[in-house]
Amino acid sequence: MTEYDYRFSKKERLCLKNEISLLFEKGRPLTVHPLRLRYILVDSDSDTKCKVLFSVPKKLFKRAVKRNLIRRKIREAYRLNKHLLTGSVPEGKHLLIAFVYLDNSPLAYNIIEDSVKKSLSMVEAAVRKKNIKYE
């Protein structure tokens, strides 16, 4: 049985402004309700395979408590299922991904986890088929 690394470290978080702007300008969109993803494969010299950003719009949820709750659910679903992605990313590259929550009401964790699994498998298939521009 394979051991997976279920940690979500600081290195895996997408924080740099230029990487975020590149992702939203040139990244490919993918929608699996209640999430919209943007993803792009870029050159890298770091050891991380994926860098991820989680966003819940303030326009949909005025209270920070609800935004943080939804963000935590998405982050936890990603953390437990990121092994679906990491094997398909080629050496010398890393994948930038943004998860944006679309629904205007907080959904149950199992619904969010199903959409995260489905979207990660779709991104993984696109990476394997080389349907992503290498920037």
Explain the overall architecture.
The protein has 135 residues and is of the alpha+beta class. It has a single domain, classed as Ribosomal Protein S5, domain 2, CATH 3.30.230.10. 39% of the residues lie in helices and 21% in strands. The chain is built from four helices and four strands; from the N terminus they run H-E-E-E-H-H-E-H. Strands 1-2-4-3 form a four-stranded mixed beta sheet, sandwiched between helices. A hairpin with a 2-residue loop joins strand 1 and strand 2. Helix 2 packs across helix 4.
| Form type | globular
Task: From the alpha carbons, calculate the radius of gyration and give it in angstroms.
Answer: 14 Å
Mean pLDDT figure? 91
Q: What is the CATH topology?
A: Ribosomal Protein S5, domain 2
- Please provide the count of β strands: 4
Q: Structural class from helices and strands?
A: alpha+beta
Overall number of domains: 1
CATH architecture: 2-Layer Sandwich
Q: How many DSSP H or I helices?
A: 4
Content of β-strand: 15-25%
First-to-last CA distance:
35 Å
The CATH class designation is Alpha Beta
| Strand arrangement in the largest pleated sheet | 1-2-4-3
Portion of residues within helices: 25-40%
Keywords:
135 residues; alpha+beta; Ribosomal Protein S5, domain 2; four-stranded mixed sheet; 4 helices
